[in-house]
Amino acid sequence: MSGRADLWPLIHQERAALADDLSELTEEQWATPSLCEGLTVREVLAHLTSAATLNGLRWLAGVVSCRFDFDAQVAMRLAEQMGTSGAETLARFRGVTRSTTSPPLPKPAILGEAIVHGEDIRRPLGIVGACPIATLTLVADYYRGSDQVVVAKSRVRGLRLQATDGPFASGTGPLVSGSTLALVMAMTGRSAHLDELTGGGVDILRERVNG
């Protein structure tokens, strides 16, 4: 890709695919616990909607109003996008699938959020996504070198990562091998994907994820 501006079409693609995957959910399914501790799949989707409606100024205003409690700011903005039903939460998300508004984050982080939170939602519902390997590889490359938005770089320090379904490879040390998606999810702290990984470094990574 020629530049990070080129990531917006990928972000839009991932959002649209997630919206389509959730189009037939019942209200009971919307209440399913997500992979994000304490949040339902509906709440995680509302969080994604919120992120696509916040520019830097609104984000900062929210942080200030919450007295620099970043978790409180996230919860406040999430609540703004819930609506009165799962169908309304989804409709609000569909309305921002092509948004280019974002908090002050690098575009790979925004793409990563769409993919990781998409899996946070899909996996508990038994939905298998179809994200292109090239997109997953780009996100894996971002996370293995960054602790900026979520701790990922530190989590895989001293480990050799090797994708079994694509070209992603990184680091030296004990091996952690598996699908690119499983590596991304483990890097970002999701224990649900650890059993899909193999190699001598898995136990080390498991301790870091669960520690």
From TrEMBL:
GO terms for molecular function: metal ion binding. It comes from the Bacteria. Residues 12-99 form the Mycothiol-dependent maleylpyruvate isomerase metal-binding domain. Pfam families: MDMPI_N. This is Uncharacterized protein (TIGR03083 family). InterPro entries: DinB/YfiT-like (IPR034660), Maleyloyr_isom (IPR017517), MDMPI_metal-binding (IPR024344).
